[in-house]
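Lab meeting notes turned into a lecture example. A postdoc, R.K., suggested we walk through two folding results consecutively so the class can see how the record format repeats. The first protein's sequence and structure tokens come next.
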Amino acid sequence: MFRIALVMALVATAPASAATGGLAQVQAHLRAVSTMTASFAQTDRTGRTLTGTITLKQPGKIRFQYQKGVPLLIVSDGKAFTFIDYKVNQVSRWKVGDSPLALLLDPSKDISRYAHIVPGMQDGRIVIEGRDPKHPEFGTITIGFAEKAGAPGGLTLAGWQVLDAQGNRTTTILSGQQFGGVVSDKTFLWRDPRPVSRGR
């Protein structure tokens, strides 16, 4: 019940038209998106919510720029995610394919191999749930889409919830989505806070 209530909230602003096409419609949307910018609100398992802006450029590039005063940054250059904590000068990296968000960042993939439609949604709303059956440790992602005329593939990405292998949930809600704008590759650069070792 909690999961269904949450994914309904993800797409609460959807218009009341029939959600048809299922995974094929979602695949068409993902392949039609060249760039996207949006505001996000991200809530972790403790109930803490952080806001910021998200910038996406296919294939594979994404940047989560957190609100002023939050010393965190997450960037994907298409090959790897980089998490930077500027407060403690720490950098972590992992392959894009090792993240549930890979479902959104590789439109060439056949998502029917990794995802299925969540049944019981209202008209105008499509929710999919995805996980890599070969790597359950990567977690599960539930993604909400809202039908919107004029948007790529007739859909707009509303948000997602990630459940990691430890049972922790993180929910991200998007607003103000804009598609097709010019996004420089420089957007996905980041400043390395780690001190440079002598002799390098």
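The second example is placed directly after the first for contrast:
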Amino acid sequence: MSSPYLLTAPAPWTLRGRGWLALYRLRPARVGGLLLVRYAASPVGPYDELMWVEAPIATPAGGRPSIRRIVVSTAASVTWGRRNWAIPKAQASFDWSVPGQVRVTDADGEPYAHLAFRRAGPDLPVNAAWLPRTWRTVAQHALDGRPDWLLTTIGGTAQASAARMTVLHAQCLREDLPARRPLLGVGFSEVRLHFPQPKLYPAPDLGP
């Protein structure tokens, strides 16, 4: 029987869970973020997620963060992430059997990433609304062949603390990550994220 979550899960979404973030400097004008999340609740049920985000990416709306690589643990999250926001999700398996570590394998059973993580220090409340709107507006190129972009301004709250996420292997995300030293590591609990309906930003008409 098909999962009921595959039938319909349009935006907006509210998700709850916990996660870890490592922020890297790629070059003076660009940063990258590695984000690992365990969603305990979402419109398509619980799922795990690992993504690589870069900012700013040039779009017709200006420089914005954009998700460059992402894998999730369920088919429903793949289907509706792609359909709602043009997020280029693929399915993978997440193995949490070793405490403080996760191994991710792709749909063919090949190693995708191996991460270790730990949190330290007190929790403090954080709110996405404290960031400039452009920093939390994710821009994704349409996945259906159109030249348009979808812009989604994310909101949310969490409890945050200092954390460390060590990349032991991430060939499919970005092969140089194990050798890079992150600028910042943050752990999140009591995460509550809101993904609204995206705004369509048509590509400029360049004429004949």
